[in-house]
Write a structure and sequence with these properties.
2 copies of one chain form a homodimer.
Chain A (H helix, E strand, L loop, with lengths): L1 E3 L8 E3 L5 E9 L8 E13 L9 E7 L2 E5 L2 E5 L4 E4 L7 E3 L5 E8 L6
Antiparallel strand pairs in A: 2-3, 3-4, 4-10, 5-8, 5-10, 6-7, 6-9
Chain lengths: ~120, ~120
């Protein structure tokens, strides 16, 4: 069993570019743990930050952990808060962004075979 | 895409018995959503409550969402708090319990084929 006291203790990767801003991501459970069926990542989006608007073959299962943000659902922004759950089926366009002055944090689980980060 | 404003809005099932106490569980993303690779459940353990101490073939990927609790790891209790991450490989003994006066809430993801709840 692996217990991480807090996700922030783990190595992270920063994403900033043309289509992504202020996103910090980390694999907390993945292939290196011999977790072969699915992978848990934790993302932190800084104020005014956003993930890319894109789609891909694999699904996302998301739990909002802290902060306030929005998810792009069928052409509109929908508010989400801690305790919100989002299921993004494969090949569906999606994007998340921070809508507050604090960090927006969520877990995002993906199936094996998808790029972990 | 499915967006649940807060997990508490979804149907839940109460578990109380000889080996489990004060546990409320819900499938927030599962087979009924056509999520065929893995399933997200949210569990709420009431004060003084606990899950069964058991093992099974499938793994758990857990994120502590709120409250304070403990996980049984290799023969001892380990404190966990919001933001803690636990990976329980298949066939490893595990148990979670509340160690506070407030609800202890965590997400627990399992692979397809395992019983959803």
């Amino acid at each position: 069993m692996k217990v991480i006291s807090h996700y922030s203790e783990t190595e992270s990767k920063q994403f900033d570019g043309e289509v992504v801003k202020g996103v910090n991501g980390r694999v907390v459970i993945g292939q290196k743990d011999n977790a072969l069926n699915f992978c848990m990542r934790i993302f932190t989006i800084a104020p005014e930050g956003y993930t890319p608007r894109h789609s891909h073959a694999w699904e996302h299962e998301i739990l909002v952990h802290s902060g306030s943000g929005q998810v792009w659902q069928d052409g509109k922004w929908v508010d989400v808060r801690p305790g919100a759950v989002i299921f993004v089926p494969g090949n569906e366009e999606h994007q998340l962004r921070n809508s507050s002055a604090a960090d927006f944090v969520f877990a995002c689980v993906i199936p094996k075979g998808a790029p972990e980060l």
